[in-house]
Amino acid sequence: MTDSQPPLAPALRDPLERAVAQVNTIVLGKPHEVRLAFVCLLAGGHLLIEDLPGVGKTTLAHALAATLGLAFQRVQFTSDLLPSDIIGVGIYEREAGQFKFHPGPLFTQLLLADEINRAMPKTQSALLEAMAEGQVTVDGTTHRLAPPFFVVATQNPLDLAGTWPLPDSQLDRFMLRMSLGYPDRDAERAMLGASDRRDVIAALTPCLGPDQIVALRHACTNVLASPALIEYVQALLAASREHAQIRVGLSPRAGLALLSAARAHALLAGRTFVVPEDVQAVFPFVASHRLAPGASARVDRAKLALQLIESTPVR
To answer: What is the mean pLDDT of residues 24-37?
Structure first.
């Protein structure tokens, strides 16, 4: 691939641009966060949104599903939710004389796992194989999930009563973690004066389809990352492992996630190659939930990620 080649054919580029613009008409005043959601989708990852209730987490998931033409399911995670409630269960059918698998809500294309930290660890872990492999195994039989499979999970960082914090193994399955935050004054005013978001979302026309998303994901893998760029990614990984305030740094899998997200960011910017600014734009959202600060560290994970960017020179 050369720099002079167009990053995407118009048949993919134009609907992708329309899709991003359409989601921005629903999630007002959050273009950066909407772009990150598309980065995660195109890079083949899963998204964790950690924020206060009522700031648009569920709205973003609904808007993405309607805009992308994806089958959508929402699961409200609670303390009594069982793995079979998500994955499905085998039911004995007397006429056939055998068990038949009845798929659960996991068998969709965009799954909203709402308040994921309210479910018990065994239920949280039921998502692991699906998120990592795009399949689930029930009673020794493997069931493939229809691509593209995309999980958007939410959790409230303040209301911790009756919650089970996600273990590191589960957090690592999310390519990006982000927050939406409150809208600015103009966006909030426009929101207050507009029609109900649910009615607007119900009237949306899909701009993309599953096959196009699969094609866009393939296009992301063809975005060029030069040897110098890969060295920069390695330098960030090494810096995280050597930082005095970080107990556990970034793993090689985190480096692969960072590179994939940077490629998707470059593709959305209309480029066929990754630049350091792409890596820097996604690094805090890829790295912060994977860093483990030392016991005496008083700085949060997001600030540690920013410190790593500032202290690591671009070569």
So the answer is: 96
